[in-house]
């Protein structure tokens, strides 16, 4: 069973208030794939985790839209102790090692470069690269 199916099963059980099995599935995912993808996050069932989501860490309240691709060693979550997690749109590609931190919104069809650190919103269709991330093809 791949990581997306495990997450989907855990999320389905969590939403139906099954108390223990989602936690067990999360532990199994952590052991098998070295990732932390909580069932409390809202990840669309078409999101892809190539390389079985190795090293991926996602915050509890994160939202990830359909057809997004999250490569290995990506961190998506809160920043500076504030529990405000990113909202990622549809058809986004997040490169290996990227960090998306804080209360940011990533627009549809955006691209996040490998090892980029995103701490500001990325508009629809833009590419963000660097530390901190800057927009490459923004018309703003």
UniProtKB/TrEMBL annotation:
Xref: SUPFAM superfamilies: Trimeric LpxA-like enzymes
Name of this chain's protein: Serine acetyltransferase
Cellular component, GO annotation: cytoplasm
Species: Saliterribacillus persicus
GO biological process assignments: cysteine biosynthetic process from serine
CDD domains: LbH_SAT
Family designation: Belongs to the transferase hexapeptide repeat family.
Keywords per UniProt: Acyltransferase, Repeat, Transferase
GO molecular function, one term: serine O-acetyltransferase activity
């Amino acid at each position: 069973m791949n990581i997306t199916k495990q997450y989907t099963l855990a999320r389905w059980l969590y939403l139906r208030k099954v108390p223990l099995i989602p936690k067990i599935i999360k532990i199994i995912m952590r052991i098998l794939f070295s990732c932390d993808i909580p069932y409390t996050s809202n990840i669309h069932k078409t999101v892809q985790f190539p390389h079985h989501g190795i090293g991926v860490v996602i915050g509890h309240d994160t939202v990830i839209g359909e057809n997004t691709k999250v490569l290995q060693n990506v961190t998506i979550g809160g920043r500076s102790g504030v529990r405000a997690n990113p909202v990622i749109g549809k058809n986004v590609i997040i490169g290996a090692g990227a960090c998306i931190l804080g209360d940011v919104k990533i627009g549809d069809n955006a691209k996040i470069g490998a090892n980029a650190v995103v701490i500001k919103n990325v508009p629809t269709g833009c590419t963000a690269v660097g530390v901190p991330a800057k927009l490459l093809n923004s018309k703003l």
